[in-house]
Amino acid sequence: MCRMDQVKGVLTLQGEALTQADINLKTAKSNQLLHFQFRDDKHWKLQQIQDARNHVNQALHLLSCRDDTYHFKTGAEVNKLMDAVMLQLTRARNRLTTPASLTLSELATSGLMVPV
Fold first, then answer.
1. β-sheet bridge partners, residue 10
2. Do the bridges between strand 4-14 and strand 17-27 make them parallel or antiparallel, or are there none, so unpaired?
3. Staple partner for 25: which of 34, 67, 68, 111, CB 3.0–4.6 Å?
4. What are the pLDDT digits (tens) for 7-65?
């Protein structure tokens, strides 16, 4: 697991769109600096980021909702859990890989929103 020691960045919002991002992550273990920027021609809607976060939270919930003393009984049970986790992570990635073209009001009525 990679622990982040330091996160610094600048985000630019225009209305409901994230239009620019310049983010630096510094890992604690290797002291490695990672730098990320958004493409200038791609904008992300705030709802996309919220949707991705909801999917990641769901994946984490699936992994942590069992009691610490629980033991899997079969490999099929492990595969079923990992399929569900990977589905949530894939959905999160898909929400971020392509900029959204819907407005917030369109998203609100589209059924894509998940109550938090």
1. 22
2. antiparallel
3. 34
4. 888 888 888 888 888 888 887 777 788 887 876 677 778 888 899 999 999 999 999 99
CB 95 within 8 A of CB 51: yes
Residues 106, 94, 103, CA angle at the centre, nearest 5°?
15
Residue 97 in tokens: 């890989």
- Backbone Cα Rg of the chain: 17
Provide the residue type at 113 as one letter.
Answer: M
**Closest CA relative to residue 104, chosen from 42, 20, 14, 16:** 16
Q: Which helix (H) or strand (E) holds 25?
A: strand 17-27
> Would strands 33-37 and 4-14 be described as parallel, antiparallel, or unpaired?
unpaired
What's the pLDDT tens digit per position in 74-91?
Answer: 999 999 999 999 999 999
Spans of all domains in the chain: 1-42, 46-105
